[in-house]
Amino acid sequence: MIGQSEYADVARTAVERVLDAEREAIGRAGRLVYDALRAGGVVQAFGTGHSRAVALELVGRAGGLVPANQLGIRDLAYYGDASSQDILDPKIEREPGLALRIWELAEIGPNDVFVIISNSGGNATIVEMARLAGERGHPVIAITSRAHTTEAATRERADAGTNVGAGGDGKANADAGATTDSGGGGGVNADAGTGANAGAGSDSGGRERLAELADVVINNGAPYGDAALPLPGGGAVCPVSNLTGVLIAQLLVADVVGRFLTAGQAPPVYRSANTPGGDAHNDALLAAYGGRVRLGDA
Prior knowledge:
single chain; alpha/beta; 7 strands
């Protein structure tokens, strides 16, 4: 049976698992963010598909951190020369070289820290952004599904072995099992096999994934394919990743703010624009960062 109670049970379990199992990782991530902000850096939050919602939770939010910027595919139209039509294709996140184009439109500082969100952890743009950040000396915090990463790797290895046994070169299905970060899917294969990392050597079945490129990995607890309630005829409904992703984002903010307060420092936090003095408070803090913090969709 599928109904409110069934999803409520799944949601409660997922939230409790994050609170029980991920606090240490969130603490390590909080230390990276705190150190970056104290050094004048900015949080660069990035996600594609529905993972954008978790990135947005960290940016321009009443009660959230001011030095936080959302990177996104939409930047190609907002700040670059791409048309809105160019970025509407949901498959664009699999396009090689896209992350570099997004990067080059942003003012990335040397002390910035990256928070990259992806349930599957395998799409080309996500992997490329994590690799770019790591290669350029920035700490990378990943919010992703360990279950999806593990299951996708298992399927990729099995598919590669099947192809080799059948006389193939083991590459045709190197990306089987990858999904988009659109939140649905129930394990439906999105054929994300055009990425720059397809076939690259790694421990996850033949290509890199976000978890392998991060300094800290926070497991969102979502199942393979994200949707949690199986349908009788196949597939599933009711995803988990954004539910726990938003929780993780706010636990991270709380950890960082706690570190500021423990050190006797005023945390750079937004006030609601719908309260007296909120705009003036926020504008004064934002002025210190100029174009490095763009509120785009916030």
